[in-house]
Amino acid sequence: MNTRLLWIAAAIGLLTADRLTAQTRPFQATDYYKMTFVGDPVLSPDGRRVAFTVTTIVEDKDRRHSEIWMAPTDGSGQPYRFTSPSFEASAPTWSPDGALLAFTSRREGADDDVWFLRTGPFGGEAYQVAGVHALPRFSPDGRQLLYAWRGKDADSLKQQPWRDRVSPIAVTRGPDLKRFDGRVYTSLPFLADERGLVPPRETRRPAHLYLVGFDGGTPQQLTEGDLSQNQPAWSPDGKQVAFVQDSTEPDEIRRQVHPQIYVLTVTGKASRRIETGFAESQAPDWSPDGKTVAFICSKGRGEENDVCIVPAAGGAVRNLTATWSLDPQDPSWSPDGKTIYFAAETRGNVHLFAVPAAGGAVRQVTQGERTLRGFALSGDGRSLAYTASDVTHPAELFVAPVAPVAGAGGPERRLTSFNDTWLGQVAAIPADTFWITGVGGLKVECWLMKPYGWQQHLLPRIPDARRAGLLGAVHQSARLIGLRQCVHLRDARPLGDGGLPGPDAERGCGDQPRGGGHDPHGGARRLVRRVHDQLGGRSHQPLRRRGNRPIHLQLVLLVRLVGRPGADRL
Question: What single DSSP character describes residue 155?
């Protein structure tokens, strides 16, 4: 899921509060403009600094603005802006010696978006390297730059940008092509996940691999053909490059994609496919000795992902997570070649996991009810940088030592606090978690966010059926009538102490009719009968039916009706 969208959803949690004070208020829509989004952390090769992106909202221009910042990982100094605030900047990439930082930035008058900055104490102006047309990957020795590029745009496209929005084989092209800001498609697809509308298929060009020296020059094209080469990864010795190529790329309708891993010899430009036996093989990463490639393997669309390894020269594939139930992402080797790290979603969170390269049990490296992203290992494998967010806090930057075994890690260190000031003014609580059992015994985790101003000791009084009230403000369905007849009074005794009884204590309104047959209020009775474990042993106000006898409750549903005179409010 997109990180920014995830946190916008999480921001709804800021509408809730357990305890309100005079200093806090509910989250408002305009607070979105105060949010700062931290992302894309990358550690310097020596692990002493971390570069990351900071994105803010420019309210008056209705757009986002991204910059690259830097911070010392030992916490000895405050984070500082590294790129000019006058320009957008993103995707920081360190050179192997840590002396340069490459990044993307659109700047007026420049044909390409790739820039370089010196990271030493004297700094300097950002500059471009001739022949580098896309964000590069430094070779292990730092002397060559590799990138995937679709080639130069035709002069006609530069002079007439509308050509990128209109299929060249379209019969109709709009009323006035120079002023027409829509799109004309003659084939699928026209929409992509997290990208929105894409250029018409007929205008797209495959991305090929190019190589240029560190000092710049004419780029050397390494691959060609009708297919794109993506996700390039240098071998440790700098002689080979692994990449991913999908044979279904030209197809208009792709019911099953088929990405596969290839290895290219840089000097001879010859490439070969690594046979994996899986329908999808991607995200290749070389082992430190260059003998093995780790990758994400899958049997096909809709199937589970796994972490697999295969000899770089070809051979038997080993699935390291075949018995693991989660879906791993982007494997990365430890510097000693003994461990493979990867991220995975688990119970609404995202964490880092590790598996021995020789095979064994998967262990969870990071912990907590939160979402961690952008995992970046230091060159020595001893420290880890990442961003962390939860339901009441946007992402901030953290570093932590990497534990070689479970439970051996040290405390993490928080490096940024961009959102602390405005969050201190907002009432917020974490979402409550509960589980339900679905079809076939499937356990489903759910979250409950209480409304702003909600207090635990308040429960709705459901009035008598003869007068309007909380449920009287709406149409009286049979379910609500049955519920209204069962629930009438409130009591303040805690669970198990003369308060709410266990489900077998006695039969009441929540039970099935003793005589069998159809029960017209069965839905309401089932609604009333849900478990005490949502209340646990905490003090509460159990509902009681007529005659002051307790009823069986497992789940209490709170309803708030606004704008109806005479309706009871929570």
Answer: H
Segments in 473-516 forming alpha helices (H): 478-486
Scored b (16 or more CB within 10 A) or e, 115-152 reads bbbebeeeeeebebbebbbbbbbbbeebebbbbbbeee
- For tokens 């990463």, name the residue: 285
Q: What is the mean pLDDT of residues 450-461?
A: 64
Note the residue count of the chain. 570
Can you tell me which residue has the tokens 């974490």? 430
Q: E strand or H helix at 5, and its extent?
A: helix 3-11
Helix (H) or strand (E) holding 308: strand 305-311
- pLDDT tens-digit profile of 146-184? 999 999 877 665 666 667 778 888 887 666 766 667 788
Half-sphere exposure in the Cβ direction for 517 (13 Å, CA)? 3
Choose among 305, 392, 397: nearest CA to 353.
305
Q: Are strands 208-213 and 144-149 parallel, antiparallel or unpaired?
A: antiparallel
User: At 9, which amino acid appears?
Assistant: A
In 214-301, DSSP assigns E strands to 220-221, 230-234, 240-246, 259-265, 271-273, 280-286, 292-298
Q: How far is CA 66 from the centre of its chain?
A: 18
How many Cβ atoms are within 10 Å of 429's Cβ, its own excluded? 17
The residue with greater pLDDT, 448 or 514, is: 448
> CA-to-CA distance for 381 and 131, rounded, in angstroms?
33
CA pair distance 544, 501, nearest whole angstrom: 11
How many angstroms separate the CA atoms of 272 and 159, rounded? 40
pTM of the complete model? 0.75
Rg of the chain (C-alpha set): 30
Distance CA 364, CA 362 (A): 7
Cα–Cα distance for residue pair 69/51, rounded to 1 Å: 6
Q: How far apart are CA 294 and CA 317, in angstroms?
A: 10
Contact between 332 and 342 under an 8 Å Cβ cutoff? The reply is yes
CB–CB of 305/329 below 8 Å? yes
pLDDT bracket for residue 191 (50, 70, 90): confident
Q: Is the pLDDT of residue 239 over 60?
A: yes
Average confidence score pLDDT of the chain: 79
Residue 221 burial (CB count, 10 A):
13
Q: What is the mean pLDDT of residues 208-220?
A: 96
Is the confidence at residue 278, as pLDDT, over 50?
A: yes
Q: pLDDT tens digits for 99-115?
A: 999 999 999 989 899 99
Between CA 292 and CA 440, with CA 297 as vertex, the angle to 5 degrees is 145
